[in-house]
Amino acid sequence: MKATKLLHNHGQSLWLDNITRDLLYTGVLKRYIEELSVTGLTSNPTIFDHAIKNSCAYDAAIRERLAQGKCGELLFFELALEDISRAADLFRSIHNQSNGMDGWVSLEVSPALAYDAASTLAAAKELRARAARPNVFIKIPGTKEGLPAIEEAIFAGVPVNVTLLFSREQYLAAADAFMRGIERRIAVGLKPDVSSVASVFVSRWDGAVAGKVPPALFNQLGIAMANRTYKAYRELLNSPRWLRAFNAGARPQRLLWASTGTKDPKASDVLYVKALAAPFTVNTMPEATLLALADHGELGSIMSADGGDCEMVLARFGESGVNLEALAAQLQVEGAKAFVKSWNELLAVIASKSNALSKGEVHAISTH
Hints:
By secondary structure, this protein is an alpha/beta fold. Helices cover 54% and strands 11% of the residues. The protein has an eight-stranded parallel sheet. The longest helix has 35 residues, at 324-358. The two termini are 35 Å apart.
């Protein structure tokens, strides 16, 4: 049995962290669903940037929008919504069979809005309405400024994928925003079954301390932080606050592991996937990581609800001079900046392609 199926059988959802028209239109994504137990998909500006830049698959659609006088951000979101809607339709049967627990696809609001709660909320509502699919998450960053938008979006009935979380404290703040939105719905008599996931980024921790800690600690920080967060997640699901909401009909906000591709060439290509195997969670992984996992026939142990030895491991990082709280804040700021950079690059690609196509040039802006 493939390790992808084993992981699925353990109760963890495998989502693909990628989307391209080639994946959608050549049957590759459908094959991943059928053969590799993929039950959802996530996207971000970087993914769309690479997809549009390295392919001619979007050229006809761009030409059509240009003829309609559309450009820039408006043109991009029309392309993205076409892809997201098609992907959502591929996962619709899974969504229905799981009673809405799985089969989700995610689309992000403009990263330029990361520190503007009101605009983020307005964009989330608009994208949700335009997608017109029950199984589309709108990604909102879990920054301090993003938390009010998360609460208001949940209260408004918009399913949210909270992104850019790195630590237990950032996760708990996002979970609190989700719970406030749910509790407000209950208080005014609205159905509280609004879905959400909280995306915790893992591998970036190890990239941040690479070469700055003893070799014995290489590639351990991300997993230890994930274990600390998983313990908090399990405790929240057992809390009286959550159980009251559950009794009123609320759905749990599932924990999602993001940034799970191995960056260190000396480490296992499924390092984070194997270490983060846990029931009632999601792992969204790059295509290369998914295919590597499919080649493996075993997984190893399941994450411990009590966090295992994470605090002991984290103490070693503290002794090595790593300020975990400061680094968590830094990673979130850097993550938001990186998404804005990718967003600007994406819009530049859209502009470059639009200009080339309007002149009758047909090419992919690619090194391939």
